[in-house]
Design goal:
The protein is of the alpha/beta class. It contains 5 helices and 8 strands, in the order αβαββαβαβββαβ. Strands 1, 2, 3, 4, 5, 6, 7 and 8 form an 8-stranded mixed sheet that branches.
Length: about 160
Amino acid sequence: MTDDSLPARSRAVADALAGAGLPGEVRVLPDSARTAAEAAAALGCEVGAIANSLVFTCDGEPLLVMTSGAHRVDTGHLARELGTGPITRASAAQVREATGQAIGGVAPVGHPAPLRTVVDTALAGHDLLWAAAGHPHTVVPMTYGELLRLTGGTPSTVVPPEQRA
């Protein structure tokens, strides 16, 4: 049963986690965790352990990229890795339409429909990851393996080797 004190979007994330059999519990932070740096500071972890949820458009469809907070997605590199057309950043309206969530709180799940997802292989270097949970003040812990299983994501590098932290 979901905690009724959570924001509605975070309850949807908690329900998706429970439905997937994952133990992660959505946590409410006192301050915003809109950026990887804010989240890492609030959680006392490395910025690279923050799994940013970024929405792009690719071949006319939304593409969710779960990337390490330690670097920015190189869209040209990612398109080459995936063998797709150009990848461009989605607008705030496109993010909301695809995920039902606002930028700064986009979770890996809890969306109106499943999204094609890529998971940054750099995240595998951390024992515990933190992802947004549907609201800028909520986060959820999980492992890299749990993130892959939860999203059905494709593991990929999202930056060329020379840009990796």
